[in-house]
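Expect chain and fold; thus:
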Amino acid sequence: MNPTIIPPAVGVKQRARDKTDPNPLRIASDSPSARKPPWLRTRLTLSPQVSHIKNILRRHHLSSVCEEAQCPNLGECFGNGTATFMVMGDICTRRCPFCDVAHGRPLPLDDNEPYALAQAIQEMRLNYVVITSVDRDDLRDGGGAHFAQCVQQTRLHNSGITVEILVPDFRGRLERALPCLLAHPPDVMNHNLETIPRLYKAARPGADYAHSLHLLAECKRLLPTLLTKSGIMVGLGETFAEVLQVMRDLRAHQVDMLTIGQYLRPSEHHLPVEKYWHPDEFAQWASIGKEMGFTNVASGPLVRSSYHADHQHDMHKTN
C-alpha cells in the first residue's frame, strides 16, 4: 500500500526530488546525463551590475526566471542590465521534470505586483522587457488578467517600451485568459512548445502539444498584427527530423519567431540529457527555419526563450 502523500503547505517550495517525484519515498533515477562538451562552458560574471539587478528585484519583491530556473546566461544578462521578470510568484502548480522552478501551492496573487514591476522596469531603464510567469492552475483564468495588468502598468510608466510576454498554456482556462490578455496585448506573444509531441508525457505532464499550438494560432487569429513566438529545447531524445516537424507545425500555425536551445539538467532528479547537439546542427535549424518563413530563428546551445529577445525583435523588423 502506498503511503498517503501530504501536499505541501501554501507557499512552501518543492525542488529537485521533492518536485519531480510525486511519491517522495521512491528512489530517484540515477540516469546519467551525456558528458557536457566544451562549447557549453559559460564564464562566471562578477560584474557589480549583477548585484545591482538582484537588489532591484528584491527591493520590489519581484522574481526572475533567470534566477529561479538557473539560467546559464544570468551573468551575461544581469551584467548587461536586463532580466526576464517572473510574475505571479515563484511557485508553479506543474511538476515539469526538466524545469528547476519550484513546485507547490502558490500564495495568493499580489495585487501590487503589476505596479512594482513597472517601477522596477523604469529603474532599470529598459527599452524592451520580457515578462513570464509560473503556471497558475489554481486561478480561474490561469492568471490572464494579472498578465494584462502587468502589461498595462508597464506601458503606463515606461513610455515607448516594447513588451514581450512568455505565457503558460492556460490549459482548461484559455477562454477566460485570452480575452484578458488581448485587452492589453503585448508586442510579442511567446509560448513555448518546449519539446516534440512524442516526449510530452515525460517532459510536460499536464500540457498538450495540440493545445499549445492552438493557443498560438488563436492569438494570431484574434489579433493578426500580433507577433507570435515559440521555443523548444533539444537533448531529451528527439531526432533532427522531429525538430524539423515541430518547426513545420509552428509555421502552419503562423508563428513568426523561434528559439532553439540545448536542455541542461538542473539536478540528478531531473530528466537526463540524452544528447548535446553540436553548434553546427543548431546553425542548420536556423538556416532551415529561415527557409520555412520564420522571420527570425535564434538557435544555439545557450539560447533560451528570452535570450537577446530585443535583438531578435529588431531582426524581425528588418525582415
About this structure: Residues 144-157 form the longest helix (14 residues). Residues 23-29 have pLDDT under 50 and may be disordered. The beta strands are 63-64, 84-87, 128-133, 162-166, 188-190, 227-234, 257-262, 296-299. The radius of gyration is 19 Å.
